[in-house]
Amino acid sequence: MLPMNSTNPVLCLASVSPRRRELLSQIGVSHVVLGADIDEAVLPGETPSDYVSRLAREKALAIRRGGQHLPVLAADTTVVVNGKVFGKPRDRAEAVDMLAELSGRAHEVLTAVALADLRGVAERLSSSTVRFRNLTREECVAYWGTGEPRDKAGGYAIQGLGAVFVESLRGSYSGVMGLPLFETGELLREAGIAYWGAGRSGERA
Prior knowledge:
By secondary structure, the protein is α+β, with helices and mostly antiparallel strands. The chain has one domain: Maf protein (Alpha-Beta Complex). About 30% of the residues lie in helices and about 25% in strands. The longest helix has 18 residues.
């Protein structure tokens, strides 16, 4: 387990993503980190929203079932174009193809967040629309060479170098990054977990 803001932690974050750790720290939640290893394949007939919600839920439950006593927060993000799920690119060719499909058009970014505690699992879903400017193949290849697209859904990072591709955003910037803070805050509030460093609340049954 990797500590992160772990003085009197009130939560376990089921993700080793630096972006999610930073976002959770941004709202003052003291936490520890434990990555969840689950199968992320899309099931036959599964819609994109059902897919991200299931993965967030399974990540949270996997950590709880592994013996974690703190409430567990998990999230999953995917990019969607015409109902097609874009996960993390396997290689340069797939990343360039993904970016070519996103070029000059709008796409949907779905991020589900789940909180598992003694009460069970509560979930929220964030949906945002991102529009890219037109991209050339040369800059898509160059972007892959920066290393940034390798572990990003849809092959780009809105908070990084990929920001220059984004013409407009409607929805949640933090949701596109990977942890929608409005939805996360709602889950924490309902569970009696303080944010902004306002103190620790005990886990509710």
